[in-house]
Specification:
Blueprint: E1 12-15, H1 18-29, E2 33-40, H2 49-59, E3 65-68, E4 75-78, E5 85-87, H3 94-101, E6 114-120, E7 125-132, H4 138-154, H5 167-173
Parallel strand pairs: 5-6
Antiparallel strand pairs: 1-4, 2-7, 3-4, 6-7
Helix pairs in contact: 2-4
Protein name: Condensation domain-containing protein
Biased composition (Basic residues): 180-198
Region (Disordered): 157-198
């Protein structure tokens, strides 16, 4: 079941799904979050990134919510905050940033349940997004990260927000067909950087 997005601050977006309630119950006593990193081949300004993050929140509504546990049933409420952004010292290894991020719990309120760190590096930069598990899994987090890269580097317009699906619904729909057999002795080549054409 999906519920239409509500944009008024403090309004209920939708109740947490069964799986989301389980995750939220667990993180209430054992906070867990995960980080994803985009290494870019060109710099991104600290002054321009907040606008891209705001656009990302519009595209992915759960990046702009808090979890309200005071109601009889836990619900997502629209948060008043923007995605927090920090800028690391130039040349800081992103691995060090990620290690620290895993020691900093993301509280369920006042939200949002995601934060960002810009890591300047020569010749480009890295962007670290850290998510609370109540709002997404690795698949959804990767989608958000790629959308941020597209909006930041390539100037792509993100599509308007739609309904807010439950995490288990997203996982089911993105399973996709079976992967073809791997070549080259079972090894798959991966690109470590994201670059835009042109």
């Amino acid at each position: 079941m999906r519920t239409e997005v509500t944009t008024s601050q403090g309004c209920v977006v939708r109740p947490l799904g069964a799986f989301e309630r389980t995750i939220d119950f667990y993180t209430h006593r054992n906070p867990i979050q995960f980080s994803l990193v985009a290494e870019l081949d060109r710099p991104v300004s600290a002054s321009g990134l907040p606008s891209a993050l705001a656009t990302l929140q519009d595209r992915h509504p759960l990046l702009g919510v808090a979890v309200d546990r005071t109601a009889p049933e836990a619900v997502y409420r629209v948060s008043e905050g923007t995605i927090p952004l920090e800028t690391a010292a130039d040349g800081t290894p992103w691995q060090a940033i990620v290690a620290v991020e895993q020691t900093r719990p993301i509280p369920p309120a006042p939200g949002p349940l995601v934060r960002a760190v810009l890591v300047p590096q020569e010749p480009g930069c890295a962007i670290v997004l850290t998510f609370a598990h109540q709002i997404t899994d690795g698949v959804g987090g990767l989608r958000a990260l790629l959308d941020l890269v597209a909006a930041t580097l390539c100037g792509e317009e993100l599509t308007p927000p739609g309904d807010v699906p439950h995490v288990q619904d997203v996982s089911t729909r993105t399973g996709g067909p079976p992967r073809p057999p791997r070549r080259n002795g079972g090894r798959r080549r991966r690109r470590g950087r994201h670059a835009c054409g042109g």
